[in-house]
Amino acid sequence: MPAIELIGVKKAFGEIQAVNDLNLEVPQGICLGLLGPNGAGKSTTMRILTGQSIADEGTIKVLGMDLPEQAKFARARMGVVPQLDNLDVDVTVEQNLAVFARLYRAPSVPEAVDRALEIARLTDRRKDSVGELSGGMRRRLLLARGLVHDPELVLLDEPTVGLDPQIRTQLWTLIDGLRTAGSTILMSTHYIEEAERLADEVAVMTAGAVIARGKPADLIKEHAGARTVEIYGPPHELEEHRDRFNTAGVSVRAAGPAIAVLAAEDAPRELIPDHAVDRAASLEDVFVKLTGEDAE
């Protein structure tokens, strides 16, 4: 039985189709990265899975339970780490966790709190007021709060958005520990490196639907080949290069002040200038090619 199963799910807000005929299955025991640009429908999908939003159409099963009818029971077995910080700042770290441990009816509240603090590496800050914590520590507390009841399924909605690179790396270490331990994780993100580092599989999402899915290495091989070359130069020269590659049927994308030639190993050598920069193809190449959006 998959941990999550979505079939033909749709959700609109007025004229905006946030989720559009979405089909998604998450097997147990993997970390699936839901990768897409802002506005792709990732957060709406997360809200549907937690019962915060009701789909207009489609079939939704979480841990074998039908949503929205059994959303309350499914939610009790999930751990949710939201994109926005909604911590209670007037109490201590351990009090925050104890409240949620009681809400989720943990067999032993003190043990649940201790375990969550250890996972998030906040044991020495347990008596501190939440208002005294740094941004990175508050993110770790959000993660601890979502794990305090030892959930079967963990939903991470843009878990490191807005964090500086050092703190982001620290949170990646914690999430990777969960993945390695066999937790089932659905993680929405628009950070390429985050998906590539943490996810067993990546589902690329845009305009409310999944348009490609697979292991990062398989997606790269299928959509970007083995090698990418980047060509730098004045805009008019880049346009000339792009036209020649397009005429030859070679896929080219914008890459900041350059153009990137995908699957360059198959491109006619005479079209690639000597000053071109050769590198391995990446998940960023796949992301930009499929979504048309710049990567982060």
- Indicate the structural class: alpha/beta
How many DSSP E strands?
14
Strands ordered across the widest β-sheet: 6-7-8-3-9-10
Show unreliable segments. Answer: none
What is the highest CATH level, the class of the largest domain? Alpha Beta
Multimer state: single chain
Query: What is the name of the CATH architecture of the largest domain?
Result: 3-Layer(aba) Sandwich
Global geometry = globular
**N-to-C order of helices and strands:** EEEHEEHEHHHEHEHEEHEHEEEH
Calculate the terminal CA-CA distance, rounded to whole Å: 34 Å
- CATH homologous superfamily identity of the largest domain: P-loop containing nucleotide triphosphate hydrolases
- Fraction of helical residues: 25-40%
Mean pLDDT rating = 93
Index terms:
single chain, 296 residues, alpha/beta, Rossmann fold, Alpha-Beta Plaits, 2 domains, 6-stranded mixed β-sheet, 4-stranded antiparallel β-sheet, 10 helices
Structural notes for this entry:
- This protein has 296 residues and is an alpha/beta fold.
- It has two domains: 4-215, 3-Layer(aba) Sandwich (Rossmann fold); 226-280, Alpha-Beta Plaits (2-Layer Sandwich), CATH 3.30.70.
- The strands form three sheets. Strands 6-7-8-3-9-10 form a six-stranded mixed beta sheet, with helices on both faces. Strands 2-1-4-5 form a four-stranded antiparallel beta sheet. The chain has a four-stranded antiparallel beta sheet with strand order 12-13-11-14, with helices on both faces.
- The two termini are 34 Å apart.
- The protein has ten helices and 14 strands.
- Helix 3 crosses helix 4 (109-119), helix 3 (93-103) runs parallel beside helix 5 (135-147) and helix 8 packs across helix 10.
- The longest helix has 16 residues, at 165-180.
